[in-house]
Specification:
Structural class: alpha+beta
Radius of gyration: 25 Å
Distance between the termini: 12 Å
Number of helices: 13
Oligomer: single chain
Number of strands: 21
Helix content: 25-40%
Strand content: 25-35%
CATH class of the largest domain: Alpha Beta
Length: about 400
């Protein structure tokens, strides 16, 4: 009989186990993982560097990076936030650094630094870890959790934490124990635009664009990357997260409007062009600094207009030009997973969870942490921060 069993050897499950064991040193604890390796997402995150967290230290601001879960996480982030994550790793000999966009990585730029730190801590706390554990069924009888393994063995525990990420089996166990599941669907992906005439410009980035899904209020501003399949970059990835349910319902087929110059108004640009017609009538759009976009992109967007001298542009042509700049329309037709990293929105319904200790409101002594919950953050270290915070809340409050 175990005091606590944690299912899932990812960031949320592993950190939950560490904190719980540290607080309850005499408790009999077991960590189960179905695969042959631990902390898989930690290993591949950030291109193998591990984007541990983000340098957004204000809880209210931090919450705005979670399309699902922002209300529920406000209290938890007052308890354990990126500053606490930085301090926790620092106290164990791992220093983090901040990049220009706010993402935080180990100074070694190697995810193995984080993995080694976590495993070293588990060894120090004498936590048993069992790999390749296939659980067939979970039941609860007489306030005890029964875990039936596929090899025929049976494990029993008084407290159970499920941190199985986006595993369908984890959702099924949650349902078996009385929980509701919001349909899991992809979040954080790029847009396929098969009809785009910009694909030949693959690799070109624009530092500041504004994207809007036509007919909705889903909007994001930031860097855009043109790819061989359509569009990517932080702006697209964030928009995909916030609009994930809408895009799923539309089968990833809808219109995307791009504002290529969001930092200057349409009227101001029109006035500038008309003024330049008088002062510099013989310059062309492609060779002027009127439109601060890469030259090859301007040529593709504006075609023959690029080569015309300003004095030849009628008001009608200028209006056409402005329409292209501020409401450039593309048809999204499908998505592409963002590198090896993927996040799922959906999962255990949040109103069924006590966010003071991550305990189920439906099944006493049952807990959840990480991506199995209907919480997801945008790219930049926010999903890991949710995992660390969930793990700390659980581990520091559970009495086993």
């Amino acid at each position: 009989m175990y005091d606590l069993i944690v299912i899932g050897g990812g960031a949320a499950g592993f950190f939950s186990t560490l904190i719980a064991k540290e607080k309850n040193p005499h408790a009999k604890v077991l960590l189960l993982e179905k695969n042959a390796t631990l902390l898989t997402k930690v290993r591949i995150s950030g291109g193998g560097r591990c984007n541990v967290t983000h340098s957004c230290f204000d809880p209210k601001s931090l919450c705005q990076n979670y399309p699902r879960g922002h209300k529920e996480l406000l209290g938890p982030f007052h308890t354990f936030n990126p500053k606490d994550t930085i301090e926790w790793f620092k106290n164990r000999g791992v220093r983090l650094k901040t990049e220009k966009d706010g993402r935080m990585f180990p100074v070694t730029d190697d995810s193995e630094t984080i993995i080694s730190c976590l495993i070293k801590e588990a060894t120090k706390l004498d936590i048993p870890i069992a790999l390749k554990q296939k659980i067939d069924q979970i039941k609860r009888e007489n306030e005890i959790f029964l875990l039936y393994l596929k090899d025929g063995s049976l494990l029993k525990c008084k407290h159970l934490l499920i941190a199985t990420g986006s595993s369908p089996q984890g959702y099924q166990w949650a349902k078996d124990l009385g929980h509701s599941i919001e349909k899991p669907i992809p979040s954080l992906f790029t847009f396929n635009i098969p009809s785009s005439n910009l694909k030949e410009l693959s690799g070109i980035s624009v530092p500041d664009c504004e994207l809007l899904l036509k007919g909705t209020t889903f909007k994001q501003k930031g860097p855009l990357l043109i790819t061989h399949f359509g569009f990517s970059g932080p702006c697209v990835i964030k928009l995909s997260a916030w609009a994930a349910p809408f895009l799923f319902e539309k089968n990833y087929k809808t219109d995307l409007l791009i504002n290529w110059l969001p930092n200057i108004s349409k009227n101001d640009l029109k006035k500038t062009i008309i003024s330049k017609k008088s002062t510099q009538p013989n310059i062309t759009l492609v060779n002027s600094d009127l439109i601060s976009l890469p030259k090859s992109l301007k040529k593709s967007l504006f075609a023959s207009l690029c080569e015309k001298k300003l004095h030849t542009l009628s008001n009608k042509l200028i209006d056409q030009l402005l329409e292209k700049i501020y409401s450039d329309c593309y048809q999204i037709d499908g998505k592409t997973t963002h590198k090896q990293e993927f996040v799922t929105c959906g999962g255990v319904v949040l109103k069924e969870i006590n966010f003071k200790n991550m305990e189920s409101k439906i099944c006493p002594n049952l807990y959840f942490a990480g991506e199995i919950l209907n919480i997801d953050g945008v790219t930049g270290g926010f999903n890991f921060q949710n995992a660390w915070t969930n793990g700390f809340l659980f581990g520091s409050q559970v009495h086993i």
